[in-house]
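User: Please fill in residues for this 134-position structure.
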């Protein structure tokens, strides 16, 4: 995917933040155009800082934090498996699945919302191009 044409994400689009999150998680190259003049700096700001600065609505934060919900559900599965008074024939499956959900959900959320920066950001003519060069 390193040679694929990057998608354009404009800050004037209603779903711009969700599109940036999906691009970060999928490591999809994109060009960010701050045409709404929000003062977004993908090179120096985390996605959480960008969301605060852009005054995102609740719907956007819920979308951004959905990966933590996966983590919470995994934790619930582990606790439910341990506290279940029934025979433990499926205990290993529940605990294993719950732990997998906890790790995948929490790591995805933490990586996206904290300080994950794309390795290659190029700014030219007011456009910000973001690429992952693996």
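Assistant: Residues filled in for all 134 positions:
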């Amino acid at each position: 995917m390193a040679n694929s044409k990057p998608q354009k994400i404009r800050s004037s689009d209603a779903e711009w933040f969700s599109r940036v999150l999906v691009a970060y998680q999928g490591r999809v190259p994109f060009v960010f155009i701050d045409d709404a003049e929000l003062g977004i700096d993908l090179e120096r700001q985390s996605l959480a800082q960008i969301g605060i600065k852009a005054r995102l609505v609740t719907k956007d934060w819920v979308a951004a934090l959905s990966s933590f919900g996966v983590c919470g559900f995994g934790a619930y599965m582990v606790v439910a498996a341990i506290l279940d008074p029934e025979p433990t024939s499926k205990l290993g499956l529940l605990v294993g699945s719950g732990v997998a959900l906890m790790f995948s959900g929490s790591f995805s959320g933490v990586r996206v919302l904290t300080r994950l920066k794309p390795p290659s950001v190029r700014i030219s003519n007011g456009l910000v191009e973001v690429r992952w060069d693996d």
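For context: The radius of gyration is 19 Å.
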